[in-house]
Amino acid sequence: MKSALLFASLLCLSIASLPAPAADGPMAREAEAAIRATDARWSEDLYAGRLDRVMENYDENAAFLTHGSPLIRGKAAIRAWFRERLDTPGYSARFRPTEIIIAASGDMAYELGEFEATVLSGGRTMRVKGKHLVTWRWNGARWVVTAESINTDGPAVAG
């Protein structure tokens, strides 16, 4: 009896720890294509310093996580973080997704990707590379960012 109960408990734990299924098929491919298109515009808007257009991608209650900072919560606070970066001389950044997974429900997704940013420091251009994780939610009209986490692969280097 005890071993049957233990087996049942372990089976339940194993099933509960499985990842949520990813969507497959035409709807998932359409969602992924929409997110990739949004990413392409978003990256170009960031590179060009078009802050209003960058911020169109975020949900009002989005969260933003970055190294060395407390959790940044809400669109206004995220905007202030970007404003500070864009006001820094020589700042530019671009990113691209490397993987986008659409949830089986079709209304959530996550993205893994990479970025590169530059800034002027002491008259030298410094470059940093890193990675990002973005969660997306379908709001009934378009995909919006609900959370984003970025971190660098190492210190900035001259270049």
Summarize the structure.
The chain is α+β, with helices and mostly antiparallel strands and 159 residues long.
Helix and strand composition category: alpha+beta
Q: How many H/I helical runs?
A: 4
Mean pLDDT: 89
Rg calc? 19 Å
Number of domains: 1
Tell me the β content.
35-45%
Task: Assign an overall shape.
Answer: globular
| Second CATH tier, the architecture | Roll
Query: Using DSSP, what is the number of strands?
Result: 7
Low-confidence stretches: 4-18
Encode the helix/strand succession as letters: HHHEEHEEEEE
* CATH topology title: Nuclear Transport Factor 2, Chain: A
Largest sheet report = 7 strands, mixed
Assigned CATH class: Alpha Beta
Query: End-to-end span in angstroms?
Result: 67 Å
Helix content: 25-40%
Structure report:
With 159 residues, this protein is an alpha+beta fold. The chain has a single domain (24-158), classed as Nuclear Transport Factor 2, Chain: A. Helices cover 35% and strands 40% of the residues. It has 4 helices and 7 strands; from the N terminus they run αααββαβββββ. The protein has helices at 2-16, 26-48, 51-55, 75-86; strands spanning 58-66, 72-73, 92-102, 108-121, 124-138, 143-152, 157-158. β5 (124-138) and β6 form a beta hairpin. The N and C termini lie far apart (67 Å).
Architecture blueprint of SSEs:
Layout: H1 2-16, H2 26-48, H3 51-55, E1 58-66, E2 72-73, H4 75-86, E3 92-102, E4 108-121, E5 124-138, E6 143-152, E7 157-158
List keywords for this structure.
alpha+beta; seven-stranded mixed sheet; 35% helix; Nuclear Transport Factor 2, Chain: A; 159 residues; 7 strands
